[in-house]
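Possible regression after last week's pipeline update?

I re-ran a chain I had predicted before the update to compare outputs. Posting the input and the new output here so someone can diff against the archived version. Not blocking, just want to make sure nothing changed silently.
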Amino acid sequence: MMRILYWQELDAAQRGAALARPAFAARSDIAAVVTELIATVRAEGDAALLRLTERFDGVLLDSLAVGPAEFAGARSHLTPVQIAALTRAVENVEKFHAAQQLPPLSLETSPGVRCERISRPIGAVGLYVPAGTAPLPSAVVMLGVPARLAGCPRRVLCTPPARNGGAHPAVLVAAQLCGIETVFKVGGAQAIAALAYGTASLPKVDKIFGPGNAWVTAAKQQVAADPDGAAVDMPAGPSEVLVLADDSARPDFVAADLLAQAEHDPQSQALLVTPSAQLAIEVAAAVEQQMATLSRHAILVKSIAASRCIVVPDLKTAIQVSNDYAPEHLLLQVRQARACLSQIRNAGSVFLGDWSPEPLGDYCSGTNHVLPTYGYARAYSGLSLLDFSKRITVQELTPAGLRELGPVAATLAHLEGLDAHAAAVERRLSALENPS
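New output (post-update):
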């Protein structure tokens, strides 16, 4: 049963505990194992990947790469309705992300001083798609579409193999729809190591994207901290949702939304924050009722135990609690949902009103479902087209521009005690005044 907590009855420490996430498994023992796995992959390359795949995934592969025959046969395992759904998701995600393209920026900040900003795609990106308790073709769409739109020339996808030695057909069909031709059957921390450092089969990439378990997360953190490794998309923890609802919300809708995220992982967290004590009671009961019918019941028993309903005195307090928690997914099921949006400061993605269930964002509305979790929404944004490119600034000065602005730079350089900085400007100013 979801616990019901009354905000006004809690002291500061209890309020902090009410908004605490489950202890994320970034433990020292996991970090040590991941360090060893990364070192093994760096030292032994493909041989290590094949051995670790047999150890962790229970399958001995002849080749890490997905071949043409496996790609070609993937569609036969999906129904036309499933393929159409994936196609529609790709189309919507493409529409939303194509609109995020930044035009080049060019302006004169002073006469004769032109500053510009241009964009360039990241040269090689690694896209990681888990396949542990469920295949995630939606993750392929969320990573593959912006990578293609950004123009990243090398797009490498890694996903764990099934016990039959193949990649999940839905993952391969999604990859085809996103224009991804290079797929490797390798998962876990070893896949992150291979992408970060390269092997004979897997090319080294510049940046790694995608969700994963505690081992994958630890591996991403370690390779990102290594100058010889690879950058990563964002910090991440288990999935989470906060539903902010008033007494106009339907308890069965709210319960379904909480369970939709709680089923991801035993460490997933679902919170209801509401001014209505009656709604909290009805939602808690509906969660119990609906949970009993769901296939991932064993996971839900654990995740719901770490979830709770928080009863607050009013809507203003509810919004404050939500901003303090900074949820990955925020559902506003209140009478004037859009009117509340201006008060939301911290959230990965927001779903307005009773008819905007979170799975639409997971799959096909068009927004990206790779979002900051574990409170990182206070400082990080969800994945976008910009994450797959770099913004480069350019400046160009005419002689007149240097003559007018150069003394400012020289003065500031001397102020900081950086004589060589000043000299690089002053030599040019001297040359303008005394041309040889």
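Follow-up from reviewer: compared with the archived run. The CA atoms of residues 220 and 232 lie 6 Å apart. Marking as no regression found.
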